[in-house]
Amino acid sequence: MDPIETIVLAGYLKRYPRLGSLLVGIRESVASHSFRVAYITFELARMMEEEPGKYVREAVWHDFGEAKTFDHYCASKRFLRYEDPRKSDIVEDADILEALTTFWENNVPDLELFIERELEFLKLTLSKTLLESILSNRSIPYFHRKLRTSEELYPADRIILAGFLKKFPRSDWFTVGIRNPETIADHVFRVMIIADILAREEGADPEEEIVRALLHDLPEAITGDLHRLAKIHVKVDEEGIWRFLGLEKPEETAILKDADKLEFIATAMEYQSIGVKGLERWIEMAERGLATETAKYLAAELKSVVLGDYYVDLLEREEKD
Fold it and tell me: What is the pTM of this model?
């Protein structure tokens, strides 16, 4: 798939809602769901003493086809025909665990019915144990207390914490008047997609880069997203946060840095194409910081993207095929 098309379609998933979640009163994007599926996959793989990279990479892409087909809930699939990608047991279980954890976090009525139905589909004994650990937290307020008093977090704790990124907004966009900006999880999802693209083009290891991208903003589940002005006035104990998380801080490679900046540029262009003004200097600032030749090329291409026009062009290409 063309890299620009991939990046634009990943942006669709940042805006497409999960229909099954909407039915029980939860508003979340397909991208934010895919982000935490990838995170749960990371934890499951580590618990099974497997290298997480290949599974995380699979998880990131597992719902990518929905950028073209839109999301469908279980009952609607009785009447629809499309190819559902095969998933490894780890990613399959992570997908189920993510949905059940989201339902638990949002106090969905009759949660027991959902758990009873989905338990039979879990393939790994470890997944059932992990679900029990997640549900042992009586509520999110109970979990907040753990965050205030614990010395270190464990896999089930980190999975719940990663869910905060599905709700916390990217703060930069408030400063230009966007009232309902993307979430941190939405942003991280597309950083992972772009990191995969850049790694393949630049001869780096996609699995390593995609895991770095997955983890790079996890501390923001504790601090929230601090924009640049805030960071001048607020000092963060990054070493302390990573120690508390029980994880190693990912290396800030050129691929990761460029993927982060490219995702910002893509989002800025999308906002600009629907009428948000005053982003030109932001885009220039991000573009100046790019290091890899692939990222510089993609940034130049992204600057011409207009969402409505791109959709019509894509539609015409697909119809011809």
Answer: 0.96
